[in-house]
Design brief:
Distance between the termini: 65 Å
Protein name: F-box domain-containing protein
Order of helices and strands: HHHEHHEEEEEEEHEEEEHEHHE
Shape: elongated
Structural class: alpha/beta
Strand content: 15-25%
Organism: Laccaria amethystina LaAM-08-1
Length: 335
Amino acid sequence: MSLPLELVREIIHLLLFSAPPRSSTPEDPGCSTKPTWVTISALSLTSQSYRALVLEAWFRTLYIELPGNLMFLQDSGWFPELRSKWTKHLHCIQLNDTLSLWNLSSFLRVSSIRLDWLLPTLSPSFTLPHADLDTLPFLHLSSTVEHFDLCGRTWPDPGVIQGIANTPGFGHLKTLKMVQGTVWCGLCHICRVVQFKDRPTGLVYEGGLGLPIHYTRALAPLEYLEEVVIIIPNHGRGQTTLGSNTDSNADTNPETTPNTNVNPNLWSGECDTCMVMMYDDDVFCEKWVARKKHVGLGCCDSDNDDGQKDVRPPKLRRVEYRFSAVDGGEEEEEG
């Protein structure tokens, strides 16, 4: 007596999603989050019905290294359900030394995309034909996409972040994760490595706080964006710390509860040099922190040096930084 297909489907999912990924560092650019095929290959040989369920589960995440391979899938006619039904998460690896476009017109059910950018000398944004705005290299994105990961961008300046918001099809994006080598300093206006004196593992903000001001402006058009996660190495050997907020009545944001944010300076990407030089001025520090507290609330816009409003995505509720260790603990040179 054979098992009900509903139960077989649950067994397949349990085998797939409890198995370790083939890579020991799945967060690293170019590494797959999927386990090896042998995890469920035996079940695919059991019967035609079982094989269909195995393929559906296996191709739920599609790892693909070249845009041309998408065209091959379409032209070959293999697994038509892969594009129209099965694939929910698309993991694209950009390996070419020139910009390539990923035509996703036939992927109708994709809800999340990860783009691993392995081209340090090229920006992941480009200008669409007949368009004036820089976008990411995706064409014909489904409006079902709610999650996007950008991995491997060494210098994530606000122009790259703006390219995310400009990309047609990202209008319903809810979560954004970026694995990057540096972060934008809103004081000196360049990308800098993170250097803390101590070794914090992470930092979480609620209520729309935490992003560099130029990032919040770039992402402001994403009206459904709720969460941003930034994973970045801490190179250490800095002179500043996040500190701690011991005042239980500290005003972190009128929209949030006290003590939501754990550091009194509301660190949001400022480099170690700027923290040492500019935060030493109490008047400047107080004004800068107050500005960050009220990003998107319209209270400090008239005081901005650049004359632009400090806006943010209207539904942004959570910003998380995860700090990874640098191998060997050696500080790398900035480019």
